Amino acid sequence: MKSWLEKRALLSPDQIGLYAGKSAWTFREMNEEATELAEKISPHIQNQSPVALLITNQPQSVFLIHALQKIRVPVLMLNNRLSQKEWQYQLKDSQAQLVIYQDQFVINTDRAISIDELKTGECWPYVPFEEEDVCSVMYTSGTTGNPKGVMQTYDNHFSSASGSAFNIGHRPDDIWMCAVPLFHISGYSILMRSVIYGIGVRLYEKFDERSIHADLVNGKGSIISVVTTMLERLLDVKNERYHSFFRCMILGGGPAPLHMVERCHDEHIPVFQSYGMTETASQFTTLSPADATRKTGASGKPLFPGEIKITDEQGEGCDDYVIGEILVKGPSVTKGYLNNPSATQEAFSEGWLKTGDVGYLDEEGFLFVADRRSDLIISGGENVYPAEVESVLSGHPAVKEAGVVGKKDDRWGEVPAAFIVLIEEVEKETLHNFVSKRLAGYKVPKMYRFVNELPRNAAGKLVRRKLKEEINHESV
Amino acid sequence: MKSWLEKRALLSPDQIGLYAGKSAWTFREMNEEATELAEKISPHIQNQSPVALLITNQPQSVFLIHALQKIRVPVLMLNNRLSQKEWQYQLKDSQAQLVIYQDQFVINTDRAISIDELKTGECWPYVPFEEEDVCSVMYTSGTTGNPKGVMQTYDNHFSSASGSAFNIGHRPDDIWMCAVPLFHISGYSILMRSVIYGIGVRLYEKFDERSIHADLVNGKGSIISVVTTMLERLLDVKNERYHSFFRCMILGGGPAPLHMVERCHDEHIPVFQSYGMTETASQFTTLSPADATRKTGASGKPLFPGEIKITDEQGEGCDDYVIGEILVKGPSVTKGYLNNPSATQEAFSEGWLKTGDVGYLDEEGFLFVADRRSDLIISGGENVYPAEVESVLSGHPAVKEAGVVGKKDDRWGEVPAAFIVLIEEVEKETLHNFVSKRLAGYKVPKMYRFVNELPRNAAGKLVRRKLKEEINHESV
Q1: Which residues form the AMP-dependent synthetase/ligase domain (chains A, B) (predicted)?
Q2: Do B166 and A4 touch (CB under 8 A)?
Q3: pLDDT at B64 over 90
Q4: Residue B11 and residue A301: Cβ atoms within 8 Å?
Q5: Considering chain A, what is the average pLDDT of its residues?
Q6: What value does the mean pLDDT take over residues A245-270?
Q7: Which residue among A11, A158, A307 places its CB closest to the CB of B301?
Q8: Which residues does chain A have within 8 Å of residue B198's beta carbon, measured at their own beta carbons?
Q9: DSSP symbol at B210
Q10: What is the pLDDT of residue B323?
């Protein structure tokens, strides 16, 4: 196949595909930009290993993403908030052949080139791609071990896009507002939908509630993807009804508190709560506004043709209302982790991906997520895996062991908090600096508490639930 | 995967999925009907060979089609207008294990069971299906040789459905009017879209222009699929503007004459001309009403993400405006012909399906079909392959050779006409009866002309174009 942007430019050359600030690009113009970049990148490409991007939400980033599709190398989307060490890990693990970065970032590798350094190049050899080829790679952490590179194929993105269209409808004049990061699947998937559907994306460099509010009121977009924190901030500034062109707010990245759902209902905000992950190429289930008040706390039903089942510890299917592990299956689900067959094998059971999240289905098939996988902390829409933070803390010579949990926070939903058993005395600030050097800012604990021991079950396994109860009861 | 209807019934149980006459069924009710039928059919199933259906456009037929998806056997859709001999050929060639037929049909095989004979059965073993499994088989004839069974996978149908939605938009309240036969891809694909999108189908037993007109005026449907003859008949009775709910008329099965396109434009009928075939799981290119007057005679651009190329006799790509063979590629294209690897191999070139049709692309990528494959005759939306009719005629002892072409016809667009070189004298009526016993009525020539020889080129190949010119110049 030709690249998706190339096809879209053939089908809808004069349609606006991208809005950013006061500028706009038709699909033809986008394709020209991407072609130019592809020609510049091409001389630096040695093989089919990923090319990493270290970018922000800029039009240039959109063109870069499409340029990499043109030369058919998978893109590794680096979270720009991570630390050097975290980036290094991903580059090494993915065997990335090149990093292309925006000028404001510094990355320590000899395989990096800044966007401005890219010089007019030569024609690249045209390599058609197949649906099952890897399009993008994004790293996620898990219960244990190192972060893993989730492979997202073209078919994954296409299926996710079609399932979403069948769910919320597709209007040829839709404009999808993107204030979520392009390096997350939430943002990246909007770019894919834009070329697959032939609709415009309105790109925001960052989330500013006042300007987004103004755009919603003035009919600048019909769909927006947000995380809970963003919706909270939007509600804070809301003083006018949104334009009738606006028809759909996709809410992801953690559960929405009841008061928020009710407020949206009262204010006629069409919120679609959703559940998904990097491994499902964006939302996997969605709850329509019509069901939101009837099914409080639910995450909805799978997008067509995805499937969900709940299993107990023996892998047997659970009855309705019985809590177990959430497994997902369908064409939007990843085929596995990059260069990591053992993690892939461990993650799947007979074609079903074991999410590690816990929940149940009701008799109508609505999913209720009881607990995110591995005590996942969701802070401002970003995933923080306790095991990863604990592992860094334990690496400090003064620390014997650590337990990290989410502490409720008005602004971020949750922030990480650390319980620490010491070997020898150490300042909290010293620990804080130690972690800050190794992990992205949003992963660094906002609270440290020294304790004599950590709660463990009979098998000796850390019971984070107890720490969580302790910290959150205090804070209430 | 579960069957599509089963999933849809889980996602949208209370949505109406089927309207027929004064009755209507929700997806939940449809699923119950299909489950009951699956239980009745199940005891008759021995293996994974196709089950043939000999049916008309009845609600029962819809449930049967979904029942077969439930037990995961491919369905062979028999054209109910064919002759016994033609049916026998398809049953044998496909190794069909069973024929389920409506009472009004008689089919000579011991593997047949009428719908009414199906008795309450047992639970069938749940067999999940995969995207690449064959969902349906439909026979088409070609330039030479016997009819071939086109395999349509679930993925083919899904891709066709999504490509169409991205093109014409998808509204959750759409109702698709189906007056084309369910045994053709045009009708079958509407059923697939219904469960994939979650929208209603309004099913008509046959095409009656007055009742369809009334339904279009009264807002009973938002989309309709028609062939040229149907549109002509609709225009004949049109005396009122269609309802604003009606938004899309997909026109297939042969080119639309200019006067018809202009009339539709004047009457505000949103006609989407299309080009497709059994091998592409319904329309492959579509021309929007916006482009219809600007691009007279065009068949539009491919549905996303399908691709088209034009090649010359050496298989090299043609420049814009240069006529050559039309090749198609994409996830909606068949993987080949059932039990016929040699025909499959012959039909494909490096992953591209050679349609046998002839045409060109303009500089914007619009397809213009110059000539249908193998002098295909399209009569009232049905395909008639000259080679098939000639082969039957040549089988008569009095006939030395025959040439069959399309003669212009006011009602049907074209009808078959036969030029015959005799060995010995014979009555036209005798020949007519001979052919009628062996071929469907619409394939039987409406005119016979005895000639001394047939026009052939230097290589001795029949030049049907000359016969066609001769007959049509006379009739003008």
Answers
A1: 6-338
A2: no
A3: yes
A4: yes
A5: 92
A6: 87
A7: A11
A8: 166, 304
A9: H
A10: 87
Per-residue H/E/C for chain A = CCCHHHHHHHHCCCCEEEEECCEEEEHHHHHHHHHHHHHHHHHHCCCCCCEEEECCCCHHHHHHHHHHHHCCCCEEECCCCCCHHHHHHHHHHHCCCEEEECCCCCCCCCCEEEHHHCCCCCCCCCCCCCCCCEEEEEEECCCCCCCEEEEEEHHHHHHHHHHHHHHHCECCCCEEEECCCCCCHHHHHHHHHHHHHHCEEEECCCCCHHHHHHHHHCCCCCEEEEEHHHHHHHHHHCCCCCCCCCCEEEEECCCCCHHHHHHHHHCCCCEEEEEEEHHHCEEEEEECHHHHCCCCCCCEEECCCCEEEEECCCCCECCCCCCEEEEEECCCCCCCECCCHHHHHHHEECCEEEEEEEEEECCCCCEEEEECHHHCEEECCEEECHHHHHHHHHCCCCEEEEEEEEEEECCCEEEEEEEEEECCCCCHHHHHHHHHHHCCHHHCCCEEEECCCCCECCCCCECHHHHHHHHHHHHC
Check residues B308 and A130 and name the one with the higher pLDDT. B308
Average pLDDT over every residue of B389-415: 90
B131 or B241: whose pLDDT is higher? B241
Q: Does domain B376-475 have CATH number 3.40.190.120?
A: no
Of all residues in chain B, the one with the smallest CA distance to A330 is B1
Q: Is the pLDDT of residue B4 over 90?
A: yes
CB pairs under 8 A between A and B: 72
- State whether B304 and A8 contact (CB < 8 Å): yes
CB within 8 Å: B169 and A166: no
Whether A476 has a pLDDT exceeding 50, the answer reads no
Nearest CA to A141 out of A390, A358, A352 is that of: A390
Q: What is the pLDDT of residue A460?
A: 67
**Between vectors from CA B144 to CA B139 and to CA B148, what angle results, nearest 5°?**
20
Q: For chain A, say whether B127 makes contact (Cβ under 8 Å).
A: no
Q: Return the domain boundaries, chain B.
A: 4-367, 376-475
Q: How far is CA B136 from the centre of its chain?
A: 12
Judged by CB atoms within 8 Å, which residues 34-63 of B form the interface with A? none
pLDDT for the residue B292: 82
Whether residue A304 and residue B364 make contact (CB cut-off 8 A), yes or no, is no
* Structure ipTM over 0.90, yes or no: no
Per CATH, the architecture of B4-367 is what? Answer: 3-Layer(aba) Sandwich (3.40)
Task: Inform me whether the C-beta atom of residue B28 falls under 8 Å from chain A C-beta atoms.
Answer: no
**pLDDT-above-70 percentage for chain B:** 95
What is the CA angle B184-B264-B290, rounded to 5? 90
Chain B residues closer than 8 Å to A171 by CB = 169
pLDDT at position B142: 63
Assess whether pLDDT exceeds 60 at residue B475: no
**Chain B residues touching residue A12 (CB < 8 angstroms):** none
**Residue A10: which of B171, B197, B301 has the nearest Cβ?**
B301
Interface test with A, best of B7, B31, B196, B247 (most A CBs within 10 A): B7
pLDDT digits over B173-196, tens only?
Answer: 999 999 999 999 999 999 999 999
Position A144 scores a pLDDT of 61
For residue B166, give the nearest of A10, A13, A196 by CB distance: A196
| CA-based nearest distance B339→chain A, Å | 26
pLDDT tens digits for B363-388? 999 999 876 666 788 888 888 888 78
Can you give the pLDDT at residue A129?
Answer: 80
User: Which residue, B142, B134, B30, is CA-closest to B74?
Assistant: B134
Minimal Cβ distance to B169: which of A171, A302, A330: A171
Mean pLDDT of B33-39: 94
Q: Taking a C-beta distance cutoff of 8 angstroms, is the pair A378, A254 a contact?
A: yes
